[in-house]
Design a protein that fits this description.
This protein has 388 residues and is an alpha+beta fold. Helices cover 42% and strands 22% of the residues. It has 2 domains: 10-188, Endonuclease, Chain A (2-Layer Sandwich), CATH 3.30.870; 205-381, Endonuclease, Chain A. Its main location: membrane.
C-alpha cells in the first residue's frame, strides 16, 4: 500500500459549489497556453456542460492540446459518442473509461483537471448543472447541489497531472516500455514531506497499489483526533473499520459529527440508517441534510487536517471505483471548510438516539435487509475481498 506523501508550497483555494467552480474552470481553459487534461465521472450536456464543452473547443481551436476522460456509465453511451464527435471536430480528444464493462465493474469516479501543468482542480463536482438532479436531470433541485472542489497551484499539481496522464495512457494501451518510464518518473519526482505550512497530498484509490489508501487516511486522522471530527458525505455505508474508528473517537471524547445526504436513493438511506443505533450510542452526532442533494465528500479533523474529493463512505468508493481526494494540513483551509460544514449542519435535521429507538419493527427489519443486500452485492463485486 502506498503511503500518503505531502508536498509543501501549495496554494489551495476552496470552491463552494458549481457557482464558484465552473467560472474558475472556464477562465483557466480560456487562458490555457499549452494543454488541458480533464477527467470526470459525469459530463452532462446540460447548460453547464455545454459551457464547459464550448470552453474546451475554444482552447482546442487555439491549438491547445485538450484531452478529456469521462466515465462510460456516469456520462452515458450516447453523450460519450457525442462528446467524441463534437470535440474531435474542434481538434480535442475524448475517451470513455471502461465502455461496456470491458475492464470489469470498476468506474472512474475521479474529478480532476490540470491546465498547463501549473494549475489543477480536484473535488466532488461533476460537469453538470447545480440545479439538476444527478440521477434524473429533468428533476430541478430546490437549491444548488451541496458540493466542493479546490483550485491548486504549487508542487501538488505535478502529482495530479501524472495520475491523469497515466490514466490516458492506460486507456490507449500505451506500450509497456512507455508505462514503465512514466512509473519511474512518478517515483523519482516525489517530494518528501516538510514541516512548512500549506502541506497537501493527493490521495487516490485504485485496484493496484492504492486499494485502501483513502480509507487509511481517514482512519489515521480519526485515530489521532483530539478534539473534533466534522465529516460530510452523501452515501454512508462504510466498512467496519471506519465505523469503529468513528465510534472509538467519540467514545474517547472527540466531538464526532456526521452530516449525511438523504432522500436520493431509498435503499442507500436504509443501509446508512442500519448503522445509526450503534454510532449514536457511542456518542457520534448524526445530522441528515434534506435541503437539497448533498454531494460533497469533505471532512475536517481538529484544527489542521481537511479533505476534499470524490470518495464516498461506501463500498463502491472505498473498494471498487477509482477515486481522488486531496488532504490538506493547513489551519486556515480547515477553518474555512469547517464553517461550510457547520452551515450545512445548521440546515439539517439531527437524529437523536431516543427518537430513533422508537422506530417501528418493520422499518428496522427493512434497514437490516437493505444492509445484508448491500453487503452481498459488494462481496460479489469484489470477489469476496470486501470486508464489512
Amino acid at each position: 500500500m502506498r503511503t500518503v506523501t505531502f508536498t509543501s508550497d501549495n496554494y489551495i483555494k476552496l470552491l463552494n459549489s458549481g457557482m464558484e467552480y465552473f467560472p474558475e474552470l472556464i477562465v483557466a481553459f480560456d487562458q490555457a497556453q499549452e494543454e488541458i487534461w480533464l477527467e470526470t465521472y459525469i459530463f452532462a450536456l446540460d447548460e453547464t456542460g455545454e459551457d464547459i464543452k464550448a470552453a474546451l473547443e475554444r482552447a482546442a481551436q487555439r491549438g491547445i492540446d485538450v484531452r478529456l476522460i469521462t466515465d462510460w456509465v456516469g456520462t452515458g453511451s450516447a453523450v460519450s459518442k457525442r462528446l467524441t464527435r463534437e470535440l474531435a471536430a474542434a481538434g480535442a480528444k475524448h475517451c470513455s473509461f471502461n465502455p461496456w464493462f470491458k475492464r470489469g465493474v470498476v468506474r472512474t469516479h475521479r474529478k480532476m483537471c490540470v491546465v498547463d501543468r501549473k494549475l489543477a482542480f480536484l473535488g466532488g463536482l461533476n460537469i453538470n448543472n447545480d440545479f439538476r438532479s444527478d440521477d434524473n436531470p429533468n428533476v430541478i433541485l430546490p437549491a444548488p447541489r451541496w458540493d466542493f472542489a479546490v483550485k491548486i497551484e504549487g508542487t501538488l499539481v505535478a502529482a495530479i497531472h501524472r495520475e491523469i496522464e497515466i490514466q490516458w495512457a492506460r486507456l490507449h494501451n500505451t506500450n509497456l516500455k512507455a508505462r514503465w518510464q512514466r512509473f519511474k518518473s512518478a517515483r523519482a519526482s516525489r517530494i518528501a514531506a516538510t514541516d512548512t505550512p500549506a502541506l497537501a497530498a493527493l490521495v487516490i484509490r485504485d485496484n493496484l497499489r492504492n486499494r485502501r489508501t483513502i480509507q487509511r487516511s481517514y482512519l489515521q486522522a480519526l485515530g489521532r483526533a483530539r478534539k473534533s471530527a466534522w465529516l460530510a458525505n452523501p452515501y454512508f455505508a462504510p466498512g467496519r473499520k471506519l465505523r469503529d474508528a468513528l465510534a472509538s473517537a467519540a467514545s474517547r471524547g472527540v466531538q464526532v459529527t456526521l452530516l449525511l445526504g438523504v432522500g436520493q436513493y431509498r435503499l442507500q438511506d436504509a443501509v446508512a440508517q442500519s448503522f445509526y443505533p450503534k454510532l449514536l450510542a457511542a456518542g457520534v452526532r448524526i445530522v441528515e441534510y434534506r435541503k437539497t442533494q448533498l454531494h460533497g465528500k469533505v471532512g475536517v479533523v481538529d484544527d489542521d487536517w481537511a479533505t476534499v474529493g470524490s470518495s464516498n463512505y461506501d463500498g463502491f468508493s472505498l473498494f471498487v471505483n477509482q477515486e481522488a481526494n486531496i488532504v490538506v494540513k493547513d489551519a486556515g483551509f480547515a477553518e474555512a471548510l469547517r464553517r461550510h460544514i457547520e452551515d450545512g449542519i445548521n440546515e439539517g435535521v439531527e437524529i437523536r438516539l431516543e427518537e430513533f429507538a422508537n422506530t417501528p419493527w418493520y422499518r428496522r427489519a427493512w434497514y437490516g435487509f437493505a444492509y445484508m443486500l448491500y453487503k452481498s452485492v459488494l462481496r460479489m463485486l469484489t470477489w469476496g475481498r470486501y470486508v464489512e
